[in-house]
Amino acid sequence: MVGTAGGMDAGLETQILKIYAQAGAFAESSLGNVRAIHAFSLRSRIVNRYAAYLDEAQILGQKKNVLYGLLFSGEYFVLFAGMGLAFWQGIAMIARGEVEGIGTVFTVLFSVVIAAAMLNSVAPNMVTFTRAATAATELFTLIDRVSDIDPLDPTGEKLASFDGSIDISGLEFSYPTRRDVTVLEDFNLRIPAGKVTALVGASGSGKSTIIGLLERWYNPSRGDITLDGTSIKKLNLQWLRTNIRLVQQEPVLFNGTVFENICNGLVGTPWEHESSEHQLSRVKDAAKTAFAHEFIESLPQQYHTRIGERGGLLSGGQKQRIAIARSIISQPKVLLLDEATSALDPHAEAIVQKALDKASKDRTTIVIAHKLKTIQAADNIVVMAKGKIIEQGRHAELIARGAAYSNLVRAQDLLLSEENSGAESSHEDHAEPALEKSVSLGRHDTNTREELHLLGKREDYGLSSSAGILSNAVKLIRSTPDLKWWYIFLLISSVLGAGVYPGQALLLGKVMDIFTPELNQSRGNFFALMFFIMAICLLLIYMAMGWISNHIAQVYGHDIRERMFSSFLRQDLRFFDRPENTIGSLTSRLDSDAQSLFELMGFNLALIVLSTVTIVACSILSIAVSWKLGLVGVFAGIPPMVLGGYVRIRVETKMDAKIDAKFSNSASIASESVSAIRTVSSLAIENDVLLRYTNELDTAISESRATLASMMTFFAFTQSIELFVLALGFWWGSKLIQQGDIDFYQFIVSFMAVYFSGQGCATIFTFASSFTKANSAANYFFWLRNLESTVRETDQNRNTVPSGGCKSYELEDVMFAYPLAPENCVLKGVSLSIRPGQFVAFVGASGCGKSTMISLLERFYDPISGRILIDGTNNLTDLNPRLYRRAVSLVQQEPTLFPGTIRENVLMGIDQDGSEETTVDHAIIESACRAANAWDFVSSLPEGLNTPCGTGGAQLSGGQRQRIAIARALIRDPRVILLDEATSALDTESEKVVQAALMNAASSGDRITVAVAHRLSTVTNADRIFVFYSGRIVEAGTHSELYALDGLYSKMCEAQNL
Q1: CB of 242 closer than 8 Å to CB of 688
Q2: CB neighbour list of residue 735: distance below 8 Å, 6 or more residues apart
Q3: CATH homologous superfamily for the domain 166-423
Q4: pLDDT category of residue 915 using cuts at 50, 70 and 90
Q5: What is the DSSP letter of 788?
Q6: What is the mean pLDDT of the segment spanning 676-687?
Q7: Run of H or E including 80
Q8: Do residues 783 and 462 make contact, with C-beta atoms less than 8 angstroms apart?
Q9: Does 166-423 match 809-1055 in CATH topology?
């Protein structure tokens, strides 16, 4: 019975774990897109989508009700029925003379009693065993999976020397998830060694796919790629990726120092194991080449400054320059640049482009570019469309043909003359301002450090006054009023189940009567029948307990996960800026904390109640039957066991948080590496990541050993006390029998009652680990639930909206610093006005405060001083952020899409008050897609709007993702559009159309458009351009006015040939 129920349980658990894995991936993706969630007020809809996964898991989990009923009730029924059968058979054998005396019968009988007690300790862990076995099946399946492209495979050729010539012949390719869509078709291209080859064309034409195939992220469906005549399939994969370096369009850095991130480029090279001093020298040289040295030196620990998860404490341009330094530090023979300068400001772009041109000299370089100015000097420009080459040649040749490339060039309004030699260097002497977010890393004096320490503790005060397990259990029960009657039924069944143990003690005592003065077989048969009746009662009681407890656990597991996820998404951005709140650690906690509370509030809670009632009832029975024996047994045994167990729980509670913190570091490494797997693979640092992950685990384990040893000391104490009580009870009971103070019946009843009390106490403290984990999880859950976001909807602003509908902005002496470093101002007294219908642009070097301005206008943060007035009267900080954001649309530099279809992602732009259902007409969706120049590629897909985007939009190209994000912003018909490099990921043709669409949207009525731009050509027609430098506005005016000033803006224009 146990095996059958356990096997069925394992099958269901496998399906449930798969669903939870999907839910975890969705949660991780959503937490990574928290800015978009706040901007479009998507919390309710995202939580509903997350809850849909949980609903599916709960439905499967409820099927386990009957299994849990059978699993536990069957065990106890068989044991107690077997006890009655053994007793009946023993009496019959004594009567027939087959057994001499009652010793053998009682040996068997008490063996079964002890086995039942041990089973009572094992039963609570059956759920854990099942989950572990199920997880192990999935784990070993993954471990045993043979990868078609194994980066750790040591086999393969390593060319002793090579020039870097690449031949692509007869290439055909379709992505595994969309086999019916051909991305490359009969693609042939020769890339000479030491030359620069540029790939240009519309988004989705297959440019980035070529990069993926060269990196061997995929194998082509047909055809081959050779390096110096050798198929790359035959080459050692790590060697290949070490000698072909990639700079991606969206740079990905890792949590660590600047030095560690750039040093990742040395893995697999002869310089990997050089001394730190020599490596630092190489790192600085690479940083200087990438124009990153100056801003790195301004950081508090220079190259040893930590940059946060995914480089979150750096601006986009700064991340890109570090990524460039990381790629060129190994001096690769082949360099792949996938829009490597797209995130840079004009000044930095000019310098970095010059550095890349220098790095590309005598090196095989493949460039993917939308900014055609950056590839005019390429040796061969390949124009692609729909997976094929439509023309190729040098810049001058292609211009002369007047075909596709010439049209792309004209679309960008480039100055085709070569008289730009002084443009790049004209502004090199201007110092770069400090980075936006990294100013939070600035140096602090002693007093400031104390202030920061206190500020850093503000959100953790609740954890320092943690509630106990009983208090938390009561709060958890009260937090789910819908389960009130289920808890009552569980309590009743637990109390009835506990009544079996004092009844068993009385029954065992009565059994002795049948042997005095001589065997009474009829009474023996009667008591054997009583054991069987008790077994039937246990069958029914434990059936009810198993059914009810699993129902409660499944509902509670769903509820806790949903409420924790909702609480995460309710927090403002300063919560996510905190170093302990990495996406990996939050996702890990979402699963582990929910599981800890799931285990406690289900069958474990029933057994705790049962064991508590057993302790009280059996202690009273023991003292009532024989106070002399009972008092000694109860007070000599129970208090030490309770004290030892209590101390163990206290120790575990204090140490559990520390252990969790240690293991959360390894979880963060795993999450960060898996989410950035393309970067990990392109750098060939899989072994390095595994080593760091293993080291974190080893450190966590070694530092936990002393803690575990102390906890096990108390565990051993509580377990050994039980045997001490047995020995004491036998000794003292025998003395009392000899003195005639008690008879044998009293001894058996009182002694067994004490024994069952001890077993109940031991069972409770078997859950010590469950207590501590659940208590820690409950404390965090209630702290998180009560944690108020700084930017939130309150009773005071619930119905407060801009009186004029967001027609104008007035910034008055606005100062801002990121919450973790309030003394370092990013914006320093910014004052400006935005009038109705104006198109306003913010320009300047990376890190000067432009994106921070967007964050303030979106109200991700509030200024520390000054005011942002809307329509002249409404202070932005007084408005309901949700209602205010209904009038605002944001398009970020790095497009963020959610798992789901294109249709679902576009509809995210419509405020639906949390409802997933929508009656939006298809024509409205199509109109938004057309306005974003997305409809042509969407309609060309086999599934159209129903095409899955994949996690993070991975199934789409960067330009396609950006156009979907723009469509999402336009579909809500906003009064204010905030564009943070909105067209940076688009190809030339798409950029021109989308830019026209955005300008058309900006010119409609009183709509305000605020754009952050590095490509100054996109903002030349702005009504007002504000030039930022080091957190201040240094110039303001129209394009012609600023250009005539011959100041900072003029130099930036010259750098871009405007």
Answers
A1: no
A2: none
A3: P-loop containing nucleotide triphosphate hydrolases (3.40.50.300)
A4: very low
A5: P
A6: 87
A7: helix 65-95
A8: yes
A9: yes
Cα–Cα distance measured from residue 689 to residue 670, given in angstroms and rounded to the nearest whole number: 8
809-1055: CATH, from 3.90.1640.10, 3.60.110.10, 3.40.1190.20, 3.40.50.300: 3.40.50.300
At 295 the pLDDT is 84
Q: How confident is the model at residue 813 (pLDDT cuts 50, 70, 90)?
A: very high
User: Quick one: tokens of 1044?
Assistant: 């005539």
Which residue matches tokens 């943060």?
A: 861
Give the integer Cα–Cα distance in Å for 774 and 776. 5
Contact 762, 718 (CB under 8 A): yes
The secondary structure of residue 345, as a DSSP letter, is -
Contacts of 1058 (CB under 8 A, 6+ apart): 1016, 1017, 1020
Which residues neighbour 774 within 8 Å (Cβ) at sequence distance 6 or greater?
Answer: 469, 472, 596, 597, 599, 600, 601
Three-state SS at 254: coil
CA–CA gap between residue 254 and residue 675 (Å, rounded): 11
DSSP strand pairing (976-980 vs 1008-1012): parallel
Taking the domains of the chain in order of start, what are their residue ranges? 2-141+481-786, 166-423, 809-1055
What SS3 string covers 815-845?
A: EECCCCCCCCCCEEEEEEEECCCCEEEEEEC
Contact 831, 813 (CB under 8 A): yes
Question: Can you tell me whether residue 970 is helix, strand or coil?
Answer: helix
The first and second tokens of residue 268, run together, are 């697999």
Residue pair 775/472 in contact by the 8 Å Cβ criterion: yes
Helix, coil or strand: residue 200: strand
Question: Which numeric CATH code is attached to 2-141+481-786?
Answer: 1.20.1560.10
Token duo for residue 721: 């006390």
* Upper half-sphere CA count for residue 706 (Cβ side, 13 Å): 3
Report helix, strand or coil for 604. Answer: helix
Is residue 874 a contact partner of residue 795, using CB atoms and an 8 Å limit? no
Residue 68 in contact with residue 550, Cβ under 8 Å? yes
Distance of CA 455 to the CA centre of its chain: 25
Predicted local distance difference test score (pLDDT) of residue 447: 39
Amino acid at 356: L
**Residues in Cβ contact with 674 at an 8 Å cutoff, skipping those fewer than 6 apart:** none
Rounding to the nearest 10 degrees, give the CA dihedral for residues 853, 859, 864, 869.
Answer: 80
What counts of helices (H) and strands (E) characterise the chain?
37, 20
Query: Is residue 459 over pLDDT 50?
Result: no
Q: Which two tokens stand for residue 145?
A: 């999976």
By CB neighbour count within 10 A (0-12 exposed, 13-18 middle, 19+ buried), where does 802 fall? buried
* Residues 587, 667: Cα–Cα separation, whole Å: 9
Report CA torsion sign: 176, 182, 188, 191: negative
Its pTM surpasses 0.90: no
Cα dihedral sign for 32, 36, 39, 40? negative
pLDDT at 455: 40
pLDDT of 464 over the 60 cut: no
| Structure tokens belonging to residue 413 | 């309004």
For the segment 32-41, the average pLDDT, to the nearest whole number, is: 88
Dihedral sign computed on CA atoms, order 528, 532, 537, 538: positive
Return all residues near 672 (Cβ < 8 A) that are at least 6 apart: 254, 255, 309, 310, 582, 583, 584
